[in-house]
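Minutes, methods subgroup
Present: GH (chair), OT, SY

1. OT presented the first of two proteins processed in the latest run. Sequence and structure tokens recorded below as shown on screen.
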Amino acid sequence: MTSMLPRRALFVALSALGVWLALTVCSVEFGARAASAKTPEDAALQIEKRLLCPQCTNLRLDVCDTTICADMRTEIKDRLAKGESDEQIIAYFQGRYGQRVLAEVPAKGFNLVLFGWVGVAIALVVVIGTFVLVRLRRTATPELAAGVLRDADEQWLDEQLHERDAR
């Protein structure tokens, strides 16, 4: 039985990792489908959601009311009317204001190291947690888990029940 426990724990950990990976891939796929807009207003809104205000901290362009954001929204609509793609418009604003205007951090360069670090940390927590749970399970005494009382504990329980009955 003890040889099955580590295999089962490993199976559960790998299954959880597989489910997490599948959900991540599905969310990226559905996000890409949602990004394809139909009307010019929807296309502009999709681009605005991918950009941040260059003056405010972490405030998306579609919800910011500063003058610079109004100018950026106008610029987006003008560039869409000229036939530029979403990526060209975002590249224009990134070139003008830097990477800080991107709402989503691009997965390239040093950012990959950061993303990798998070993934490794999560995997490490899962592995260490599984190892600790398996070790705790192995060192547990079966008598206590099965409800077997020691003589001293049973005597104390009898005394408590006798006192309660005497009241």
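2. SY then presented the second protein from the same run.
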Amino acid sequence: MEIRRMKENELLSVIKLATGIYEYSAKPQVQDPAMVRQFYDYMQPQALTEQFRAERLLLWGAIEGQTLCAVGAMQSDAHITMLYVHPYYQKRGIGAAMLQEMAGFAEHVLRAGRITVHAIPAASAGFFIKNGFTQMPEISSGVDFCPLEYRFAAYMQPVPPKGKGVSTGTLVFILVVLFLLSAAAVVVSIIYSLLLY
């Protein structure tokens, strides 16, 4: 099994496989007709070709022999827009391997701090969670999708909850006050020791 970046002349094969898998596996689980329309609007060959040429869309494929058995796509901002594995090839680790390949590219080439995906249908979120993704708290999920992210270790920093963080100015003020209090304590202890002798 070879996982590699796909070329522009392979874009129609990517669209055909992704659409076929979507219609077989995902579409029956999506309840909102607007979400279904959004998929078909996104999969327009001309628009995807323009994004590909402008390097805003990156494509991967898993190929066994001459058969394209899985496809993945990610925008240049490290947002995964598709990851589809043909049902015959599922449960073999191909999706996880493709996800790892895309994540490595996002971290090392795009220098992204995280990779994101809107798992559609929401039931597919389990695959991403199993591979280290967590739900994005700033975007509420719905019945048909679940927003997820994976933060790369080099960029891992705790994200303070909204409205509960400490501003830089407040932190500087606290540090200055602590410094002044400790300096005052040193001065008082020196004076006290001089008075005792």
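Chair's summary of item 2: Strands lie at 2-5, 57-64, 67-75, 79-85, 114-119, 134-135, 146-151.
Next meeting: continue with the remaining queue.
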